TrEMBL record:
Top-level taxon of origin: Bacteria
PANTHER family found in the cross-reference section: ARABINOSE-BINDING PROTEIN-RELATED, DIACETYLCHITOBIOSE BINDING PROTEIN DASA
Chain residue ranges for the region called Disordered: 20-54
Signal peptide interval: 1-20
Originating organism: Robinsoniella peoriensis
CDD domains (alphabetical): PBP2_TMBP_like
Keywords: Signal
Listed name of the protein: Putative ABC transporter substrate-binding protein YesO
Extent of Basic and acidic residues compositional bias: 29-44
Length: 475
């Protein structure tokens, strides 16, 4: 399968073959790539690429590195690479590095000019990689194929990537999107009708939690998260009352607005009123999932990766997935969306043409679907909806529908500064004080908001020209 090659990739290949030490693109001092100079374009037009004349595809071996290896992932990649070789004649050598060492390993390889042809990379590394000229842009490919991808990629990921780095460099391997997992069999048993569309609000979600609670049957309505990470899903709910923002233009945190205080109390009422297990004040991810799949709780709000546990431990008729509730204020669908890893082409590759072919092959619908099923991810191609797993009646349909919803809005997180200490302790510790009756809702949100305001204003003062992050929509 021969794909049309990007002009920018060809130019990069030819220029790097003629000028020692030249990377895949020129860089501004701020790290953003610039268009190639007329001299570079002329050099590209005259030929002189790295690949020797007469080289056959069967003579080419690409190196691929996985930064989050597992036996299942390695088996998948090696199987796909065999199919790729059968169709193209190109050999792909699989390499891996443990996640904890991945960033350092790729930095060493990049510095020494030994990066593999195609890499799985984390979004947080892209700034360093573009500044160092370690990756090649794929703008033309993205433009040509954008209609094949779900809207969150073409209208959000790639738009922001180009705004931040001057070009598009990555293709996400899949997405994790939050949804409401629920006990479908319990709902049918009690004859409950779940609202849809604009009627599926957070208030409707709280009503569902209450309806599914039956303590005589040892059933609770929700896998409540009270330990580390407890504030993250609550944050999105609070943002439905702030227009999706965390701060105003001056850096003042908005989470202690009166509307947010009321919302905080409603969120916590499912715990204080006994609709969730009492010990869920100490639950984290594992406890939430185990108690949902084990039959103690009727709903759980979490990422699509939970679907793997549901498929493994539950019968298909026992569970389903609902979209995240919409805002009662403007009916916007606020939801977090993340791409665990992305595929990128190394600027040090001697075969960028074939590297692009490999990336395109990895994201073919049938391959991407197989890959995503391993980790509970959402495929990145619209055509994936034809697969029963991701079709209208499949368990992942709610996630795909959200990604293609024009009202889908990704709100910002806590800020561009380091908030690890708050996330590891302060956020859920403050929340637990309210759950235990030791502190008012106003005090909880004031304490959190005051600290966030302090850090955001310090960040803005130290980073002249920085702006408050806005929610991202697909419109």
């Amino acid at each position: 399968m021969k794909k049309r090659i990007l002009a920018v990739l060809l130019a990069a290949t030819m220029v790097t073959g003629m000028i020692p030490g030249c990377g895949g693109s020129n860089q501004k001092s701020d790290g953003k790539t610039t268009e190639k100079s007329a001299d570079s374009e002329k050099a590209g037009e005259t030929g002189g690429g790295k690949e020797a004349a007469g080289t056959q595809k069967s003579d080419i071996t690409l190196r691929f590195i996985d930064v989050n290896p597992s036996p299942q992932r390695q088996a998948y990649y090696e199987g796909v690479f065999e199919k790729f070789k059968g169709e193209t004649g190109i050999t792909v050598a699989y390499e891996s590095v443990p996640w904890d060492d991945a960033a350092n390993k790729l930095t060493v390889l990049g510095t020494s000019g030994q990066l593999p042809d195609v890499m799985t990379t984390h979004p947080l590394w892209l700034g360093q990689f573009t500044e160092s000229n370690w990756v090649l842009p794929i703008d033309e490919y993205a433009e040509e194929h954008k209609d094949e991808f779900v809207d969150i990629i073409s209208k959000s990921n790639w738009v922001n990537e180009k705004a931040n780095y001057g070009h598009i460099y990555t293709i996400p391997d899949g997405f994790m999107v939050k949804g409401i997992f629920y006990r479908k069999d319990w709902v049918e048993e009690i004859g409950y009708e779940i609202p849809t569309g604009d009627d599926w609000t957070y208030e409707a979600y709280f009503d569902l939690i209450k309806a599914l609670t039956d303590k005589e049957k040892k059933r609770y309505g929700n896998s409540f998260r009270g330990a580390r990470g407890a504030f993250d899903p609550l944050l999105v709910y609070l943002q439905t009352f702030t227009g999706g923002y965390v701060y105003d233009e001056e850096g003042n945190c908005l989470l202690n607005k009166p509307e947010c205080v009321d919302a905080f109390e409603k969120w916590c009422a499912v715990y204080k009123d006994g609709y969730v297990p009492e010990d869920s004040i100490n639950w984290g991810f594992v406890e939430m999932v185990d108690n949902f799949t084990g039959g103690l709780t009727g709903t759980i709000s979490n990422d699509s990766e939970v679907a793997v546990a549901c498929e493994t431990n539950m019968k298909p008729e026992q569970w389903g997935v609902l979209p995240m509730p919409v805002s009662t204020v403007d009916h916007k669908l606020l939801n977090t969306s993340s791409s665990p890893y992305s595929y990128t082409i190394s600027a040090q590759s001697e075969h960028p043409d074939e590297a692009l072919m490999l990336m395109d092959y990895l994201v073919k619908p049938e391959n991407n679907i197989e890959y995503c099923k391993l980790g509970g991810l959402i495929p990145i191609k619209k055509e994936a909806s034809k697969d029963p797993t991701y079709g209208e009646d499949g368990p992942y349909a709610a996630f795909l529908n959200q990604l293609n919803d024009p009202d889908f809005t990704v709100p910002p997180m806590y800020g561009p500064f380091n908030y690890t200490d708050l996330h590891q302790d302060t956020f859920h510790a403050e929340m637990q004080k309210y759950l235990l009756g030791k502190q008012s809702a106003e005090d909880v949100l004031n304490n959190i908001s005051n600290e966030l305001t302090k850090r955001m204003k310090e960040y803005l003062a130290a980073n002249e020209g920085s702006a408050i992050e806005s929610p991202r929509t697909l419109q």
